[in-house]
Amino acid sequence: RAKERSKPPHYILVLNFYNQNDLFSLFDIPRLAGASIVFLTQSPPPFPTNASFVSFQFVQGSSLCSQDLARISIEKLTTVVILEYHRHDAVLAESDARIVTTMMLLAELRRQRSPSFPAPPLHYVASVQLSTSMEVVRAAAAQQEATATLVLFNELESGALVQIL
Predict the structure, then answer these.
(1) Domains of the chain listed by start with CATH number
(2) Which of 7, 8, 49, 96 lies 20 to 30 Å (CA to CA) from residue 36?
């Protein structure tokens, strides 16, 4: 138990939130007490009103823009949730390639911010479109000494992130 208490709080970045009203049903909000959850997207999500013990923040921008990612305290991140890229924006394979691009941008920005003292390793949770992309995304995480939990988009159900975070 003492080990659990000394564990740093979750600092979670959620990317590509597109009006998924049920997203918060995917999180076990009470379990994330003390966490900070930052949403980087084009429009603010509907934050739950009954979760005062979790800090929510909205940053307008794109996960594919390093300037937008740089506005977040990325050196503090513990978890990055990458939801699928909007289907109107990309074909399925391109959506998965954008996940890898985002991971590479985050890794580079973290290296730039903490050259002497590397930031703690990240855990990625990604919604992948194609099962054939899973190994590529896992390899991108391993290259930066991060871990990855991947969920196929069509398998992302209520409660899935409860098990992951």
Answers:
(1) 2-164 (3.40.50.720)
(2) 96
pLDDT digit string, tens, across residues 118-129: 778 899 999 898
Q: Strands across the sheet with 55-60, in order? A: 55-60, 36-41, 11-15, 79-82, 123-128, 147-152
30 pLDDT band (50/70/90 cuts)? Answer: low
Q: Inform me whether the pLDDT recorded for 8 exceeds 70.
A: no
101: number of Cβ within 10 Å: 14
Apex 33 CA angle, 27 and 35, nearest 5: 80
Is residue 39 within 8 A of residue 58, CB to CB? The reply is yes
Rounded to whole angstroms, what are the CA distances from 81 to 3, 38, 39, 47?
25, 10, 10, 16
Sequence letter at residue 109: L
